[in-house]
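Dear colleague,

As promised, here are the two records you asked about, laid out in our usual form so they can be pasted straight into your sheet.

NAME FIELD: protein one
SEQUENCE, THEN STRUCTURE:
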Amino acid sequence: LIASRIPYGDSILIRVTTVDGQLVEELRQDHLLSSAPSWSPSGDVLALIIDVDGLSQIGVWEPGVGGPRPVTAGLGEKRSPVWLSASIIAYIGIVDGVGDLIVVDIRTGESRQITQNQDLHRFVHRRPVQLGSRVGIEVPPAWVERLELSIPERVSPGETIVPKAALIDARGDTTRRHVDRIRLSSSDPTTVEPLADGSFVVVSEGVATIVASYGGWRADTVTVEARRLEKVSSDAVFVEDWTRGLSGNDWMVEGEPAPFVERTGGPAGGGMFFSNGDQNYTSGVFSRRAFDWSRGLTIETYGRTPFDGSPYQNWRVAFGLPANDTATIRETAAWIAPVQFLSDGLINRLVLRGVEFVAGRQERRLIASVAPNGSSWHKVTLQLDANGTASVFVDGTLVVRAQEFVTTTALPPTLHVWLGGSSVGTRIAFGPVQVYERALYEWPAATEVGRNASSVGQRPYPVVPSTIR
């Protein structure tokens, strides 16, 4: 269909015809200065200026549905309707002689003023394009049609949450323009606390709603439930207590200076393993056995970390491929080391002991604050779930956890265990080791989680919808 305007007294007659000139409809557009009528991107809805009780309003007309219906209300002159998406129209609204850019959602009638006292007369949009037998306006890809929030719905105290908030444009594509304008918040910071970098930390058990908004309006929410992980009863498939020394049948040695074992003096009646790495090399051992992680994989061991603030002091446990595989080494690792934490973009110069979780070549990293007494033994658990979720526990308390942290398709079906680190100027040690071919800590049954779709709805938001003049 083709819409053309014809002067008609003090107003405009909109004539809608087929491409071969057959008349479909004649509509009256109020105000001689108004711009040409505007087809929607799909070419099946026409936007125009109409008269409603003596006031000019933006109206839309659909062939075969009846006359135009108003989608705006109130005083002030409306001019130059232009489609920004399938449901959003931008126009110039003039009040007291001053024009500003306004957008309106034709589905809900909700409008939003984009500029303030700019005295606009027109704005530039993308050129018309041919859509079959109709002429429409090309949809600006920068226009955000909706925001979608992706976040785990079952979380645990001590866990770090990294939400994924996607802006979807009018074409249905994900856009990264202006993602810095997304704002995230929590309905209950005592349960789930927002951090300055856009992530969240789960503080305590309870229920909280995570809200993602763009442009100052709420756009999407997800309700999450925080429960403590429960340890299940299971038998270890591999046990090492170091009382037999460093067995070549069980371990492959890596690094120089070489690691060594003392057969007594460790926790739980076992011996002690010393990684012994220096400022040049990290030393440690790889298990000769590879473990099936289809149900998850967990290693429990003990660590003694008498750090004194000097460099090259760390304690590390990892899952990965054997040392002779140069392509991929230590895909999944938990490190206890002195680390410098970042706070609001500035380096906190206090050196703290912490847990750093690294997903090998996948270049993912999380750091959590934990400061056990370095001269004492502490039980440390590294767990990799079958879905790629990674967790670290110290003395049974979750200190860092990230759901689907590891891309599981990048890993082989079996993984080796690696212990090691550097110990310059001190004696950093490992105690007895137990490996389980399953996730040893599980999340209890859910009670109240999910997307709060009934009270949210999806609304469009502009991201520089056009060039304004």
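NAME FIELD: protein two
SEQUENCE, THEN STRUCTURE:
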Amino acid sequence: MRRMFPVLLCCLASFSFAGCNKADSDATKKAGNDNAKPAAQGADVKRDGYVGVIQGATLDKLQKNTIGGAFAGYRYFATRDWNESKTKDGKIVVDFYGQLDKVTFTDRDRSAGLIGRALDIKFVINDQGAFWIDSISRYDNKPGGMESYAVADFGSVLPKIYANEVIRF
């Protein structure tokens, strides 16, 4: 278990070096996404390629802000990282990885020895330009190692990010 955390970090680091070229970005614009605009500024925000497409998009029920703006403005993310990759079947995967601030830990979390907690939110873009959230995973770093959990209820996470409220598990 303890070895999973460095492996996870290496995987995330390798994804951060994978990028998209100008031709990919132009193809995305031709697919009808040329009005996607980044909503936030800062070192934790990429504004090009498929990451920029997701950051400039809105979610149907949460249209008051773009995805990029909501994630950049969420005060409980200590770190934020966006990465993109392509699957063998041609789908584009955009990962948002956010380390949650320790103020979000409950007393129960602290007594269980929680050292760190992160969320990995996977967006998928198909070849027609439609996107969806494929999965949300939670990673808890404890003295015994890294534990991962699938978050089944997306509705318990995304509205909290948009409302800038603490996410509790």
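A couple of things worth noting about protein two: The CA atoms of residues 31 and 128 lie 7 Å apart. The chain has six helices and five strands.

Best,
R.
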